Amino acid sequence: MADNGSQKSRVLIVGGTGYIGKRFVRASLALGHPTYVLYRPAATQNIDKVELLLSFKQSGAHLLQGSLDDHESLVAAVKQVDVVISSLAGTIVRNEIIQQLKLVDAMKEAGNIKRFLPSEFGVDPDRHADAMEPVNQVFVDKSKFGQGYIPSRETIALYGDGNAKVIWVDEDDIATYSLKTIDDPRALNRTIYIRPPANIISQKEVVEIWERLIGHPLVKKSISSEEWLKSMEGKPLGLQIAIAHAHQIFYEGCTANFEIGPKEGEASELYPDVKYTTVESFLKRYV
Predict the structure, then answer these.
(1) 125 close to 143: Cβ distance less than 8 angstroms
(2) What is the mean pLDDT of residues 29-49?
(3) Which sequence positions are flagged as catalytic?
(4) Pick from 32, 70, 176, 210: CA 20 to 30 A from residue 167's CA?
(5) How far apart are CA 91 and CA 241, in angstroms?
């Protein structure tokens, strides 16, 4: 475990070959943590995952084979580390959130884990107990534990008037801020929100930045809240979840419409040394 800040905690990443998990592995290595990656036996049948795992190993990570369905493998893995970070998928279509209870059981048996970061790196489920179905079920499961696109140069659909404030965070920054918390006593048993000041802007403001970068205005269309919700009808469940989630973010402003409490924290204030990606610098990649 960490010793007066001089020794970095040993970190186990569960779900390290996934979309967000691979970023946690890279951030952990970059910050100097002895890093362990738990991978399922089935991963060896996927060439992309094999190549990713080998790249982790070449960068200094320790690879551990195990499974949520193999209790002994989980116990053996967690006994080697101080901190466990779960990045398991959390949608109704592929919902592994509740499976984290198996991981919790293994940590209890091992008895050596100092911190556990469950797979909750998006909207805070405790603040959205009244979320509409089907997205509410994802929040319910998450609360039991406490993609990229190329922007158009021609047209844009605005959610309503596009003025709801939204918090935009690069996935690599999510990983970096999360890893910064694990040896920080200020973050122990607290919810840490990631709200970079320069990135608390509306969709309309994002569009204005993009228009300035490309040198011309976009043709804009507004989609009303009613139209957006109606678009859920007849869609596959996974797409319904995405539509409902987007409604909360872009119409209700759920990521930015509350104040952070005294028992919570904000990452960019706690770790001002992290140079986070601004919306403008992100968009410049596509110019």
Answers:
(1) yes
(2) 96
(3) 142
(4) 32
(5) 8
d(CA 37, CA 65): 8
First to last CA, the chain: 44
pTM: 0.86
Task: Please name which of 66, 65, 145, 152 lies closest in space to residue 99, comparing C-alpha atoms.
Answer: 145
Q: Can you read off the two tokens belonging to residue 175?
A: 């990983």
CA distances from 211 to 13, 148, 250 (A): 39, 19, 20
- What are the tens digits of pLDDT across the range 264-275? 999 999 999 999
